[in-house]
Design a protein that fits this description.
Blueprint (H helix, E strand, L loop, with lengths): L2 H16 L5 E2 L3 E5 L7 E5 L8 E6 L11 H4 L1 H4 L1 H4 L12 H15 L6 H4 L14 H5 L12 H17 L13 H18 L1 E3 L23 E3 L8 E2 L5 E5 L3 E6 L10 E2 L6 H8 L12 E4 H12 L3 H13 L6 E4 L23 H17 L7 H21 L5 H9 L5 H25 L6 E2 L7 E2 L6
Bound molecules: S-adenosylmethionine (SAM).
Protein name: SET domain-containing protein
InterPro entries: Rubisco_LSMT_subst-bd, Rubisco_LSMT_subst-bd_sf, SET_dom, SET_dom_sf, SETD3_SETD6_MTase, SETD6_SET
GO cellular component, one term: nucleus
Length: 474
């Protein structure tokens, strides 16, 4: 889209927004074109802004959701949760807030010019950089990032085909132009609406559920279907940063966006999407930033820990299977742990309270490993004669585990850093490298922290990729 069309769409959207009864938009801000830094539209300050200034107000009637769209009135059976809750095994389970909003968005989108939200749809994205839309080759660049298993394309598609498509097909008169579209085309529309919701929608508390006087943060966190979700025009033109300067307040009749601290003329107004690692930022929003790398995580699958116990210390698989079954029966078994830094809470004015620091291996992983090693000691007292030996094995197993995770990434930190210096990487390729590099750096911090212990000597050879020498003492 050339810049006059792009800015024309922004201008029409602003006019439409200002015509909504109850909407306000401060003279101190404007919508701008930030495509030169891959940030689409955003809002900047045109003059210095004091803290707690109202930047704009969105009347709740301007939001798109099941309460404002005409669709639920036209298809009461589909949306009426009570009638679907009947105790009938054959009854269709109620649609959750996620699929309900996708259906509403498909309906409004297919209305075209007749939708009351047309100027809003004109500023919503038509293309996405989220991994949902990446090729296998592009996904391969994420290497062994756990995020690859969280994209959920197949399950989303199953829901679109199994749930939404039959509703659209059996109500063709309500969904304009649906008859002339193939199943594939409608699924593509559903994917686009789903991805738009993922990156743009807010959680909106229903009035009756809202705790008195309590505000909610806004961005969609809850995908389990309980919350009321909605598309909030203008609030979603705000980009976000890990350090932010504005906040969306949820009030009874409207949502207001206010400044949290002084904002200088020319600065961008940033909302907050949450303490997401870059992998999650990419999965939901299709971008990554250096500032979010403080929240990076690495998932540690328990089976990698078990392999370390077997290969490093010869603990038989059968012993581990038995111990695992016992813990599973007691519902105390975890199959995945999260390696992360201590980041502290963000200050109330949107700034960081301090640097992120790696403080240690996940406590729950250590507890489970300890429980396993105690079990091993019972069946093989010679292998683990005392607590000192158990602690030593515990550390070495964790070190081996981290090393195994590092070796799952085909390139080293050094190689990734070199790659990022090149200027021939695609945007998606660059983001994939940044995600995997952030994970490797966290692993390196954890390895360094563990190897500061005398019993386990480890090195990270950056030229040839990470490597480890674990001294099997004792
Ligand atoms: C709620 S929208 C914000 C408005 C969006 N820029 C637009 O043009 O419609 C969220 C999307 O904005 C982009 N975005 C938000 N914050 C960003 C940032 N700090 N840097 C780059 N892109 C950002 C991402 O594409 C994300 O999916």
């Amino acid at each position: 889209m050339d810049s006059s069309n792009f800015n024309g769409a922004s201008e029409k959207f602003l006019q439409w927004f200002q015509s909504l009864p109850g909407a306000t938009f401060s003279d101190a801000i404007k919508i701008v074109d930030l495509r030169d830094r891959n940030a689409g539209r955003g809002i900047i300050a045109t003059q210095d802004i004091a803290p707690e200034t109202t930047l704009f107000t969105i009347p709740r009637k301007g939001i798109i959701n099941i309460e404002t769209s005409e669709l639920p009135k036209k298809l009461p059976d589909v949306f009426d949760l009570d009638s679907q809750m009947v105790d009938d095994e054959d009854a269709v389970p109620p649609m959750d807030s996620w699929s309900s909003l996708i259906l509403v968005m498909i309906y409004e989108y297919l209305q075209g010019d007749s939708s009351s939200w047309k100027p809003y749809f004109d500023v919503l994205p038509s293309a996405f950089d989220t991994p949902m839309f990446w090729s296998e080759e592009e996904l391969g660049q994420l290497q062994s990032s756990h995020m690859r298993s969280k994209i959920g394309k197949a399950s989303a598609e199953e829901m679109f085909r199994g749930r939404l498509l039959p509703i659209i097909r059996s109500n063709a008169g309500i969904f304009p132009s649906s008859e002339s579209r193939s199943d594939e085309e409608l699924v593509e529309v559903a994917h686009k609406m789903g991805s738009t919701i993922m990156a743009y929608a807010f959680d909106l508390e229903k009035d009756e559920d809202a705790d008195e006087g309590e505000e909610t943060d806004g961005w969609v966190e809850d995908r389990d279907g309980k919350s009321l979700m909605g598309m909030v025009p203008m609030a979603d033109i705000l980009n976000a940063d890990a350090e932010f300067n504005a906040h969306v307040n949820h009030e009874e009749e409207s949502l207001t966006v206010t400044s949290l601290r002084p904002i200088k003329a020319g600065e961008e107004i940033f909302n907050y999407y949450g303490p997401h690692p870059n992998s999650e930022l990419l999965r939901r929003y299709g971008y990554v930033t250096e500032r979010h790398s403080r929240y990076d995580v690495v998932e540690i699958p328990w089976d990698v820990v078990e392999s370390a116990m077997t290969t490093q210390f010869g603990i038989p698989r059968s012993t581990l299977d038995k111990l695992r079954n016992e813990l599973e029966e007691e519902e105390e078994f975890e199959d995945t742990f999260v390696l992360e830094r201590e980041t502290g809470e963000v200050n109330s004015d949107g700034t960081f309270s301090g640097p992120a620091r790696f403080e240690g291996m996940p406590e729950d992983l250590q507890q489970q490993l300890k429980a396993f090693l105690k079990g091993v000691k019972k069946s093989q007292p010679d292998a683990i004669p005392d607590k000192r030996k158990r602690d030593e094995i515990q550390k070495a197993v964790q070190a081996k585990t981290l090393q195994s995770l590092v070796s799952r990434y085909p390139t080293s930190i050094f190689e990734d850093e070199l790659l990022l210096k090149r200027n021939d990487l695609s945007r998606r390729g660059r983001m994939a490298v940044e995600v995997r590099l952030g994970e490797k750096k966290l692993l390196r911090e954890a390895i360094t922290a563990l190897s500061s212990d005398d019993d386990v000597e480890m090195t990270l050879d950056e030229e040839s990729g990470p490597s480890k020498r674990a001294k099997r003492s004792g």
